[in-house]
Structures are given as C-alpha cells and as structure tokens.
Amino acid sequence: MERKILKKMFHSIAIVGTITLSMFSCSDENIVENQEIGDKGVTVSFKVTSSQEEMLRQQQSMSATRAVISNRLQEQGLTLEDLKTRKLEVQGGGIDACLIETTVEGINPVQPTIGTRANIKTSIDANFSSLGYRSDVSGFTPDTPDWFYNAPTQPNGTLVTPRPWAWIKPFARFYAVYPEAKTENKITLSPATYSGTPYVEFEVEKDVKKQKDLMTACSGEVKYETRGVAPETNLKFRHALTAVKFAVGQNLSWNKRIKKVEIKNAYSKGKFILPSELNGTGLNAGWETSSLSTRQDFTLDLSSSPINTNSNPNTVLTGNGNDNYTFYMIPQQLAGVTVVITLESTHAGSTAPNTISVPLQGSWKPGTTKTYKLSQNTSDWTYVLTTSNPAATAYDQIITSAYGITSYRTAPDGIQEAVKWKVVGYEEYDETTSSWVDLGTTKPAWFTNVSIENGDGGTAAQTGTVTLKKDVSDRLAAYNKVLKENTPKGSSGNYYNLSNPNGGAVIENTANSYLISAPGHYRIPLVYGNAIRNGNNNTSAYISAAPATMELINGVNQDVILHTFLDHNNQPITSPYINVQNSANPATQASIVWTDRSNLIKSSSLSVIGSGANSFVQFEVTKDDICNGNAVIAVKNSSNVVMWSWHLWFDQNDALNTITCTNKQGKQYAFSKNILGAAILRWKGSNYNKPRQARIKIKQEIGNGGSPKESVINITQNPGNIKKMNITLYQFGRKDALPSTDEIKDGNFVKVSGIQSIGTTIQNPGTMYYTSTDHYNSTYYNTWSANNTEIGYNDNVVVKTIYDPSPAGFKIPASNAFTGLTKYGTNTLMQAEFNVDGAFDNGYNFWTNSSKNASIFFPITGFRFNVNGSMNSIDYGYYWLAIPANPYTGTNLVFTWSFVGPVNGTIRSCALPVRPVAGN
Questions:
Q1: What is the SS3 assignment for 83?
Q2: What is the value of pTM for the model shown?
C-alpha cells in the first residue's frame, strides 16, 4: 500500500497541530508605522466620566423640590410625566392581574457612596471605540474621520494605538461608542468615508442574557493650546437605551412560578446619531425614528430556575448588578408592543392563568429604567419596594457582591419621595426538609455581618453586602490520608508483585505503568511493557502482523511499520524478559528517574533481584511519605545504561474505575476515571457540597392602609474547591512518562532538541526530545497499535504495544473514541454543538451518551511544546489517541471553553496527556 503525502499538506500543519494553531493563533496588529507623526510624547487621552453618576450625586446633594427635579429632568430630555406610575391592564377579561409600571432616571441606578465625589465610577469597564476629527480652524464641521476611526480605547481613556497631537491642526472633536463597535456586539459604526456627525447602527439581541448596554459620548471641540502639553479631553458617556426590568408584586395569591418573560413586537434595529457636544446635545442627536425596524420578540428564559409568585414579593427578576438579565431596549413608542409572562403551576389545583399578556403604553425613553411589577388589581401600587439579589458568592470569598434596595412612593402628579425601610428578619433553607426555616431576627450562623440593615430609600438603589464565615478545609490532606491508612502491601520478606492482582509470585499481566494505593514493599518483573499477558508471552505486543506499508515522506519512500519492536540498543526484541533479551549484560541496578513529590520511593530500597525471566526491581513505599503523585524508576546494566523504565502512579484504588462513553459511531469506550498520572498538589474546598441559602426580609416603614410592602434578599454561597494538579505527559508513540511540571523533587527531567532513535529514548526516560516533527528518526504508524497501517480517524481495534504507557488492562484509545463529545462528531466552534453538561469550569463535563443521563469530566491540561519543551496552552485540554493523523502528527482531542475538536492532529514530538480505555 502506498500513499503520497503532498508537500502542500505538510505546509498546512501548524507547529502544534492542524486544528490547534490554525484556529487559535493570535497576534497584535501594529499600525503605528502608518500613522501621521505628531508632537512626540503628546498623545491623545480622555477623561472618562458618566453623566448618570453626576445626576445621582445631584439627587443626593440637592433638595427634591419640583423646580430642582424639573430642571434636572429637562437636561435629560425628560419630564415629570415620564416618571408617573401607570397601571397596565391584562389583555382579556377575568384575570385579576395588572402590571404596575414605574420609571426612574438612569440605567439600573445605584446611589453613590458619600465622600467619593472625586472618584466617579464611569461604568466603562472594557474597551470602547473612538473617532478623531481635527482641523487647523476653530468651529470646523466634521467631515470624515481623517485622524482616526473606530480606534480601540481602554477604559482609562488611553488609545490602544497612541495618537499624538499635531501643532499644525490644534482643533479636534472626538466621538466614542461603548462597547466597541464590533460585529459581535451588533454595533456598526458609520463608514470611514461618511461625511458628517458619525452614527451607529445597533441591533438588540433576542436573548436578554446576551444583550448589551449602549453608551455614547462626544468631547465637543477641544484645542491643543500649549505645545507639548496635551489638552484635557472629556468624554462624558450617556446611556442610549432603556433598561427594562420585571418584578414580582406584593402578596400575589397564586401558587405559580414565572418561567418566561417576553417583550413581543418591539423594534430591534435602529440608527443612533452621536451627540456633537460634551453635554450630549447636537443636531439630530439621538435615535432616528424613521430608522427603527425589524420587530422582534425578546425573551428571558427562567425555566431552569423559575420564580415563585408568592414567595419572592417585590423581588426583581432581572437586572441584578452582577448578571446580564436586564432588557436593554431601543427607545421607542410602545403601540403594538406587548409583555407576555408565562407561568407554571406548583400544584394541580391552581386556577391562575398560564399566560398573562399586557399591552404596553407610552414610550421608552433613553437613559431611564422601567420596572414592570406583576400585581393583582387589589394590590396597592403607590408604594414601590424592590430588591435585587447579589450574585452567588464563591466558597472561598467572605463578602458578597452588592444587594440593592429601592424604596419610594410616587404621587399621582409624578413627584417621587423616598420611603424608609429596614431588615425585619432572616430565613435559612434546610436541605434535609427542602423548606425555609424562619430564624426571627437571628442571623444565620454563617453570616457575620450585614452592612446595611436600614435605609432612607430612594429611586436609586441603596446597596449593601453580607460578610460570611469561610468554611474551607484542606481536601488534599484527607485524600492522602486514605493512601496512608490503606493496609500495607507485602513485607520486607515477601514483596508484593504489582503484575499480579493478588501480589503473588506468578507474573500475570505486565505494563509500563502501575497504580500504587497503599504503603508497602513492591516489586515489578523486568518485562518489556505488556509483553506478558495472562501469564503468557504476548508476542503481539512487540511483533507486528502488519505488512510492509510504503509512504512517501519528505521525498523518501519508506516502510512505516515497525515489524519487530526495539530495545534500548535498537535491537529487535526476541524475549519478553529484559534479562533474557540481554543475558550477556543484564540489568543489575535501579534508580529514580524523576518524582513530582518528595520521597515517594525510599531510594535506599531500590534494587534488582533475581536473574533471567525471574528478575525483579523492588522498592519500599513508606506510610509517612506516600501521597498522590508520580515517580519514574529505571533499571540499568553494570555500565549504568538504562535498559527500561516504569511509571509508578500513587493514587486511590478507584483511579482506574471506568466510565463508559458512546461515540458518534455508536462504539463504546470505557475510559479510566482519572487521567493517567493525575496527581493533586493542592486542594482546598468548602465543607458543604450544596449551595447554602438564606433570605434577608425587608419591610418599608410606612404603607397604605397600615400595610407596608415587604421583600426579600436572597443570599447564596456556592460550594467549590480549587485544585492544582500534575499529570504525566507522553510524546506520540513513546512509552516514557514525562512530568507536567519542571519542579522535580527527586531525580532529573531535561529537555533536549533533536531527533533520536527509539533506543536512545529508552535509555533516557527523563528526557523530552523536542523537534519540529517527530522525535523518532524514523516514522512509524504502529508504535501504539501494533498492526495499524492507517492514518486518520476510525474505530479499528487497537493492539496494545510494549510502548503503550497505560497500566495493565488499559490501552490508548482508537482515533474515533472522542467523536461523541460533539453533536456531529467533528471539530466545532459552535457551543450549541458541544455535548456538555453545564458551563466550562477548568474543563467540561461531557455527556457520555445520546441519552444525556451521565457525564465524564475532562479537565484542561496544557501540553509540552515541540518548539522548546515548555508547558503551553494551559487553558486547553489535550488527549492523545493511538493512531497517526498523518505521517507528521498524531490524532488527539483538543478543547477549550470556545472549541471542541475530537478529531484533531498534533505534532508527534509534543507531549500530551493520556486517558486510557479498558482493553488489552
């Protein structure tokens, strides 16, 4: 059989792999050499502020008279009429429900902290786009952005690519758009050739969780007045959208849960003309009404965590400070726009409706927040109390993010007044009874402080935090304790034979890796890899049945089959026993190659005993020193030449339990529970394994009819842990375990450039040979599957070889083994095609079958790079498969949070992890 591998194909392969670097390489674009030279060191930068923050500080510092409020509203293009509370009736008769509409100035406003006036928070927390226009005369009318266009600008106001002021053109005007005008943000900036005030075309995402705010700014005209001193250039950002939130009203009697909120038939696209002055004004500035188009439905899906209508009064469903659940909508007239709320019953006898439809009225104004509260007609809607929950707190944090309380009342004429509020009690969720327990005024035991327990109220939220007790322990100590307390194996007079499941004298199943889960005295037979199986000579592991297979590689026609596997002297192996193969110069001594934890093996105990087929390497593992880790030991002849080596994996005895996965082709593979060589270096975690939850009960101090409104703040702290792990890595087709760390405790690990023979790699098990292609000086297709003649992806039976690094009973998987990890069994950037259970968390839980009733976790691992042997791409997971992808690469899985590639190819001399499957 003969194939021609085109030179063109070779050139398409990236250093790490066909998919890996072609899809994930990146570079910083340098355009400095094309920019106009100005005054050196005098670069454009902006003082970035927010008009909303200034408005909120004005609210704090000035009395709330009608004149003051009217003037402030006028500056924002608003009137008192715009702030009036409205009652919107449900469409269709017979439903005792309505929406209470309230409006406040600002987008999700939060009261500034007193005393921080000089440190105004801008809300600009990522890069924005800026445009620069300049002229040699004052009062110029912007033509095209002749200075810079759509320039990435950092939140602190500095341009990513610096732009110097030029003395010959001292007059300038700058415009800005946040977030950056990019396709993924659905923001399109007016063309660079456009003459006049720039504009943006904006589109609202249909899924509320993906929606983004839109803010714009203009500096007005700025003059470079003193040469060598950059002028102060202000960008005061203003919100261009309307924030729309929904809340549960007071004392709803329905036993229902809200599972979906939709805004239907609202405009999704429009053109916004940027302001041309610092104060946000300008000719035609704002939304161009005639440009509004494409009516769409916008959805907040709460089905994964529905909201009870009768247990979360006055709680905001959307818009928490740390989520993206506020609807950010284009300001528009609301004729024809409807809100639809979908509910589900929590008991069979509920008579409440399943769907509530409410036509909206009036309009959405830019820079305001609309809250629609689902209420019954009998509810009082003059008083407003809403609370927002902090995001769930991580297990290792002691302070929550901010919760918010908004408490005010609105008069019929639109005047709004603050209403005082206070904490009146606490509740805690009991996991054993699945119910809430009233604690009265006693805080939960895991609370140490609630920063704000009462307030004056207002239309802007007052915020506070909760300080929590840290309940974290050292999980690694407990994990290692299991190893230390397991019953010791063997004794000084009767060493435990690791090739025998009972530790007996008979050599039954050998391998290149052995799992050790207890202290003891151990021995390993001097056998090449898996050359003994079920007590018999396993010649199929080192003598191939494959025919000669010719390939044209680098212009040379060569046989890619290793017909008889080679020993440390590059001699064909004729016996499974090392000291029979080398009877004239046998192994007589042993040593540690490397370890990633100290004293895993008592070095003074290492020795070679016996002779011929009855030769063993033996060693002691003490109770004091055993822990989760890895070691490599080797045997040598009298000349100190390494003849073979073994990986010793210290882990709990369930590490090689299996998890069965079905691939896209319907083939089942039983993967090991743990990655080969997984070793925890650090592991701290919470002492609880389910989220702990509590409620803070809030109540207004006054209310209509003597019935103040109530609400709750939900506090959640998630369980969690942090793990730092080592693993063992392998070069394609090679048996030798290499460390994923350079912090070697015993022995040595080195990285050397160059191609070597198989024998040389055997003699140097602690050396990684990095090259641009293969670490071996001949190309073979069958070093990990003895009879393989193929390249690419298939489910052909893998015949385990003596170069396979897997423990007894396991082998490296076939090249199709990972195809079940994506919807179509192919590489994909589409997250909808990832077969995963939950979000990315230093890896993915992949579904094990199409029924999606079980999962298997694959952590990110990184790999050792073929350029210099260093660890690389630690945010990616890589796992070898047994078959070559082509003459230069091996098949493997690669994934990160945004990509899953089950049929990838990576340069052979890279060192990747292995997750073996059951089989001989």
A1: helix
A2: 0.61
